[in-house]
Amino acid sequence: DHRQAFRVALLDLLGKRVDRESGAIKGDLAGGNEVDPFVQAHLLKIRGTPLPGGAEAVRRYIEELARGTPNYTLMSPELADTTRNQLPQLHAELSKLGAIQTVTFSGVSPYEDALDVYEVTLANSTVRSGIFVTPDGKIVSAWVRPTAAPMP
Fold it and tell me: Which residue ranges of the chain lie beneath pLDDT 70?
């Protein structure tokens, strides 16, 4: 069943962690003996606003997947590899959903990856997408999944 394959592909994409760039940051933080008070205060603050460029990156990512032509140069190496492997299923499902109507920030994922989460309304459906985008527009980590069907 192609829907099950799509769900498995999306869940696999969801399970991917932020690539080695975040590992390098964690290593830098762990390597110091003294923590700068500004850095410590910043790390303790829970972010409630989207990262700059997130909505645009979600729109671009989903549109490229729907066309079957993702721009791998704007992705982390790990996300690019995962996307290449899952592109046939992602393209098949997302191409049926029509044009994007709205992209609305709904919060920050409470998990370790702290991705920005967006509700994306398309012509024929709504999906949820999580994304972490760097200031230069590179997508480090992302997932797309169908939203839950409303309860009857």
Answer: 1-45, 112, 148-152
